[in-house]
């Protein structure tokens, strides 16, 4: 009769080594994926693991490596109230976080998430405190100065999203330049719209600045009339986009033929505000977004936008962070490709109106 199995909690790699007839060092190498154990040794270890129903103690593994096997993710939350519970949806952030979680769990790490308010004066202290509980941090958007990032990076490795790399940190982002360039070309060259506006994101966002710079340069080069600046400043939210449109219309401002929004959530707010005033999209004003959040294709009309690989962005951020935690150097500034997604909100479902 086969010998009875021990309770899972009582098993150790010593039991596996005994069952497999190999050294403890060989078991450790197989389980950690280190070195190049002989195929027959690897098979004996894995067979012993199956026979014993051995479940490796993650906390013990982490302790032996000096790791907590936890990564922290920090993002900024808005304070908008125009769209009820908008702050809970985080259309863009949520998809990225799913990518981080999926990749981290695949590597045996847990994720500790926290949000900070935009007006939080103690954000550095909060992020530093979280660093003490983790092996590394992923920071959404810009919430710390370069000096602040350096301070946190002295505690644990740091990866930023939608930022720029520093000597102390790494960054993962999408190709804002090519995405905005393709969008402007489609509106100004393909549709021949003569006036276009850029409804921006938050002014301190590196993504926003990159998109605004390309929008202005390419639209001007194509001969379009440009509208942007303080009166067109949003904050990436639907509430922010709707507020900008309401303010412009209340002031009697004539809208341009096309509005390029810094994010899909902004575009959702813009389309909502236009509909409330009886302004049709795209017949009267074309509207485009940036991100391609899942709901974008279900809007009426469906939203033309630039697709960012948001889940891949999160997964890549963890991958870069995990490499640095493991002591492996890599590219400090990873750029992922984007794609123009043409739907109906830009006017492609009907002939473009020349000269408007």
Structural account:
With 356 residues, the chain is an alpha/beta fold. It has 3 domains: 8-56, 434 Repressor (Amino-terminal Domain), CATH 1.10.260; 70-173 and 310-334, 3-Layer(aba) Sandwich (Rossmann fold), CATH 3.40.50; 176-308, Rossmann fold (3-Layer(aba) Sandwich), CATH 3.40.50. It has helices at 13-20, 24-32, 39-52, 58-65, 86-89, 91-106, 123-131, 146-153, 176-190, 206-221, 238-250, 264-276, 310-325; strands spanning 70-77, 110-117, 136-139, 158-161, 170-174, 195-199, 225-227, 258-261, 286-288, 305-307, 333-336, 339-341. It has a 6-stranded parallel β-sheet, sandwiched between helices. It has a 4-stranded parallel β-sheet with strand order 7-6-8-9. Strands 10-12 form a two-stranded antiparallel sheet. Strand 6 (195-199), helix 10 (206-221) and strand 7 form a beta-alpha-beta unit.
What can be said about the biggest beta sheet? Answer: 6 strands, parallel
What oligomeric state do the depicted chains represent?
single chain
Compute the CA-based radius of gyration.
25 Å
How many E-type strands? 12
Brief descriptors of the model:
434 Repressor (Amino-terminal Domain); 356 residues; 3 domains; 12 strands; disordered N terminus; elongated; 42% helix; six-stranded parallel β-sheet; Rossmann fold; four-stranded parallel β-sheet; alpha/beta
Fold topology:
Elements: H1 13-20, H2 24-32, H3 39-52, H4 58-65, E1 70-77, H5 86-89, H6 91-106, E2 110-117, H7 123-131, E3 136-139, H8 146-153, E4 158-161, E5 170-174, H9 176-190, E6 195-199, H10 206-221, E7 225-227, H11 238-250, E8 258-261, H12 264-276, E9 286-288, E10 305-307, H13 310-325, E11 333-336, E12 339-341
Parallel strand pairs: 1-2, 1-3, 3-4, 4-5, 5-11, 6-7, 6-8, 8-9
Antiparallel strand pairs: 10-12
């Amino acid at each position: 009769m086969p010998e009875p199995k021990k309770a899972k909690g009582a098993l150790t790699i010593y039991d596996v080594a005994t069952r497999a007839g190999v050294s403890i060092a060989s078991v450790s190498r197989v389980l950690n994926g280190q070195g190049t154990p002989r195929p027959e040794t690897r098979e004996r270890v894995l067979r012993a693991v199956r026979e014993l129903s051995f479940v490796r103690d993650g906390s013990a593994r982490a302790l032996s490596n000096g790791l907590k096997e936890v990564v922290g993710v920090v993002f900024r939350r808005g304070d908008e109230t125009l769209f009820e519970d908008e702050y809970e949806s985080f259309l863009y952030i949520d998809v990225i976080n799913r990518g981080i979680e999926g990749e981290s769990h695949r590597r045996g790490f847990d994720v500790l998430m926290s949000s900070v308010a935009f007006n939080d004066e103690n954000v550095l202290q909060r992020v530093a405190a979280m660093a003490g509980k983790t092996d590394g941090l992923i920071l959404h958007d810009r919430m710390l100065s370069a000096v602040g990032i350096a301070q946190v990076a002295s505690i644990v490795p740091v990866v930023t999203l939608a930022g720029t790399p520093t000597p102390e940190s790494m960054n993962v982002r999408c190709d804002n330049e090519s995405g905005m360039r393709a969008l402007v070309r489609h509106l100004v060259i393909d549709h021949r719209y003569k006036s276009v506006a850029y409804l921006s994101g938050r002014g301190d966002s590196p993504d926003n600045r990159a998109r605004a710079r390309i929008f202005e340069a390419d639209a001007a080069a194509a001969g379009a009339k440009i509208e942007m600046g303080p009166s067109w400043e949003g904050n990436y939210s639907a509430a922010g986009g709707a507020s900008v449109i309401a303010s412009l219309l209340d002031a009697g401002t004539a809208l341009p033929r096309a509005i390029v929004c810094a994010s899909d959530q902004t575009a959702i707010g813009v389309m909502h505000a236009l509909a409330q005033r009886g302004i049709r999209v795209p017949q009267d004003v074309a509207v485009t977004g940036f991100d391609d959040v899942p709901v974008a294709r279900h809007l009426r009309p469906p939203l033309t936008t630039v697709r960012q690989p948001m889940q891949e962005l999160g997964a890549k951020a963890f991958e870069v962070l995990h490499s640095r935690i493991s002591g492996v150097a890599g590219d400090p500034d990873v750029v992922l490709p984007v794609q123009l997604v043409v739907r109906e909100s830009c006017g492609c479902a009907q002939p473009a109106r020349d000269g408007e």
